[in-house]
């Protein structure tokens, strides 16, 4: 419909009491639904679990290392053991932030398979030996501090793991397709 001047008629809808309450209910629902979704997320995140398989020792570990906002010391010790320097049989505490990063990577890639460990903690002697034999090993690697791990996951490509790790911006991400692993650490955010 057009007015005599040729402009379209803008029909105004009166806000009735019924429409007012319907709009209010819609607005309330938009606030409540995300709250319910967040509450479900909190429930789901009351525990953080990881699975590992050490390719060098054949050892496996399934652990719930964080429950209700607290790290579980006995489970962290189990993680420290499986991520030990198997060459020197030395154990060092692993940065719990690294475990949180791994748990988030695992969720992002949507896998039920364990992380296959290529390298976790490295003693100074092991790191020096690896550095002497490879250009890809840093003199002061974060592996020395228990803040780095080299991994792969059965059924997931290295590029999927790399993308998931990089998207989290939780530290360094190294991509080594020829060697068959992705390096992740809790150092500064960078990639190579």
How many separate helices?
Answer: 5
Mean pLDDT equals 85
In helices, the fraction of residues equals: 25-40%
Instruction: Briefly note the structural class of the backbone.
Output: alpha+beta
Q: What gap, in angstroms, lies between the N and C termini?
A: 63 Å
Order of secondary-structure elements? HEEEHHEHEHEEE
**Parts with pLDDT < 50 across at least 5 consecutive residues:** 7-13, 29-43
Q: Please describe the biggest sheet, giving its number of strands, its sense, and whether it closes into a barrel.
A: 8 strands, mixed
Description:
The structure is a single chain. The protein has an 8-stranded mixed β-sheet. It is α+β, with helices and mostly antiparallel strands and 192 residues long. It has helices at 17-44, 73-82, 96-109, 124-133, 158-168, and strands spanning 47-54, 60-67, 70-71, 115-119, 148-153, 172-176, 181-185, 190-191. The termini are far apart. It has 5 helices and 8 strands. A hairpin with a 4-residue loop joins strand 6 (172-176) and strand 7.
A few lines on this structure:
By secondary structure, the chain is α+β, with helices and mostly antiparallel strands. The protein has helices spanning 17-44, 73-82, 96-109, 124-133, 158-168, and strands spanning 47-54, 60-67, 70-71, 115-119, 148-153, 172-176, 181-185, 190-191.
Give structural attributes.
eight-stranded mixed β-sheet, 8 strands, 5 helices, single chain, 192 residues
Explain the layout of strands and helices.
Elements: H1 17-44, E1 47-54, E2 60-67, E3 70-71, H2 73-82, H3 96-109, E4 115-119, H4 124-133, E5 148-153, H5 158-168, E6 172-176, E7 181-185, E8 190-191
Parallel strand pairs: 1-4, 6-8
Antiparallel strand pairs: 1-2, 2-3, 4-5, 5-7, 6-7
Helix pairs in contact: 3-5
């Amino acid at each position: 419909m057009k007015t005599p001047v040729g402009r379209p008629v803008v029909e105004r809808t009166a806000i009735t009491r019924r429409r007012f309450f319907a709009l209010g209910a819609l607005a309330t629902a938009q606030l409540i639904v995300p709250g319910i979704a967040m509450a479900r997320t909190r429930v789901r995140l009351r525990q953080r679990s990881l699975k590992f398989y050490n390719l060098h020792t054949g050892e496996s570990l399934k652990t719930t290392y964080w429950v209700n906002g607290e790290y579980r010391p006995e489970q962290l010790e189990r993680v420290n053991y499986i991520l030990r320097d198997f060459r020197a049989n030395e154990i060092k505490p692993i940065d719990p932030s690294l475990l949180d990063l791994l748990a988030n990577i695992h969720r992002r890639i949507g896998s039920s398979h364990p992380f296959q460990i290529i390298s976790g903690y490295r003693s100074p002697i092991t790191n020096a030996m690896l550095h002497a034999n490879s250009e890809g090993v840093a003199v002061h690697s974060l592996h020395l501090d228990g803040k780095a791990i080299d991994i792969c996951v059965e059924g997931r490509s290295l590029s999927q793991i790399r993308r998931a790790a990089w998207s989290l911006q939780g530290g360094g991400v190294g991509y080594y397709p020829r060697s068959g692993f992705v390096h992740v650490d809790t150092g500064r955010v960078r990639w190579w």
